[in-house]
Amino acid sequence: MDTKEIQRLLDYIAKSPLAEVSIETEGLKVSVKKHGEAAPSVHVVHTPAPALAPVAAVAAAAPAAPAPVADNLYTVKSPMIGTFYLAPGPDKGNYVEVGSSIEPGKTVCMIEAMKLFNEIDAEVSGKIVKILVDNATPVEFDQPLFLVEKA
């Protein structure tokens, strides 16, 4: 199953009353779950054929919650694999900078996955103390993106 077929599946699920679809073929397993009006989440796993590489997760289904780093520092992690962007466009200002105050629901970055742009919102209130990823670089699922000093 290639990217175009997965995108067609996503479009179909978004328009249909189905809440969940799982497809398994030789070498690939795709699960799509729709959560209310939100865009469907996708989990794709390449299953190894004999003597091939181990299973690799390609997308995540749920947003990652910040994890405690130190007493007052939290790590905002990537909820999916994709390309990390600090701004909504090349000629736009960054969502956040070091020193920016954030609160739950405020967009802190965007991650592009399969030509879909996903805004990543803050889960905690506080101040950005470090941006751990360069703009327009690939990120992995659960990769630390920001350090936040909790308010």
UniProtKB/TrEMBL annotation:
Does the record bear Lipid metabolism in its keywords? yes
Protein keywords: Biotin, Fatty acid biosynthesis, Fatty acid metabolism, Lipid biosynthesis, Lipid metabolism
What sequence ranges are listed for the domain Lipoyl-binding?
Answer: 73-149
Superkingdom in the source lineage: Bacteria
PROSITE patterns named in the record: BIOTINYL_LIPOYL
Under InterPro entries, the record lists: AcCoA_biotinCC (IPR001249), Biotin_Carboxyl_Carrier/Decarb (IPR050709), Biotin_lipoyl (IPR000089), Single_hybrid_motif (IPR011053)
Pathway per the UniProt entry: Lipid metabolism; fatty acid biosynthesis
Q: What does this protein do?
A: This protein is a component of the acetyl coenzyme A carboxylase complex; first, biotin carboxylase catalyzes the carboxylation of the carrier protein and then the transcarboxylase transfers the carboxyl group to form malonyl-CoA.
Q: What name does this protein carry?
A: Biotin carboxyl carrier protein of acetyl-CoA carboxylase
The top of its lineage is: Bacteria, Pseudomonadati, Bacteroidota, Cytophagia, Cytophagales
Name of the gene encoding the protein in the UniProt record: accB
